[in-house]
Write a structure and sequence with these properties.
With 145 residues, this protein is mainly alpha-helical. It is 60% helix and 0% strand. It has three domains: 1-47, no CATH class; 54-103, no CATH class; 115-145. The chain has helices at residues 17-46, 54-62, 66-73, 77-88, 94-103, 119-136. Helix 3 packs across helix 4. The relative contact order is 0.10.
């Protein structure tokens, strides 16, 4: 994913019309790229987690004994089971999840999936909220923002 950082008028720097247009184009391209990448995460969100957690499910499906994981992580077997339980309870750290995944010869794929249909929908919702706020918020002098 590409990230674009552009100084804008919000930072107190005046931009010409050409620069503003370029900023809009770059932001739109970045948004479209992100939307494309998020499709997989949205689909993944619909699949339920295994009740025993991903680590234990992967270990059992691959037929990897807990002893082998313990050796790879320099853990006791008890710690392997505790780590699996912490992942099942959603209290595991990303660092620990990554270590256990490597011991299982797996990668951790980490992402965020927005609750809203798309980032554009959420952006429009925020713009509408701001417009309503400006329209119905008056200063003491009675003028509008």
């Amino acid at each position: 994913m590409r990230c674009f950082s552009v100084v804008s008028a919000d930072c107190g720097v005046a931009l010409g019309n050409g620069m503003r247009t370029m900023v809009k184009v770059l932001r739109e391209k970045a948004r479209l790229d992100l939307e494309r990448q998020l499709r997989l995460y949205r689909r993944a969100r619909k699949d339920p987690r295994p009740p025993e957690g991903w680590l234990r499910a992967m270990r059992l499906a691959a037929g990897v004994p807990a002893e082998r994981i313990a050796d790879a992580m320099d853990f006791s077997i008890k710690m392997v089971f505790q780590t699996e339980r912490s992942e099942q309870r959603r209290t595991i750290s990303l660092h620990q999840l990554g270590r256990m995944a490597r011991a299982l010869e797996c990668d951790v794929v980490y992402g965020l999936a927005p609750w809203h249909r798309s980032l554009e929908d959420r952006a429009m919702e925020l713009v509408e909220q701001e417009l309503w706020r400006k329209r119905f918020t008056t200063r003491k002098t009675g003028s509008r923002d």
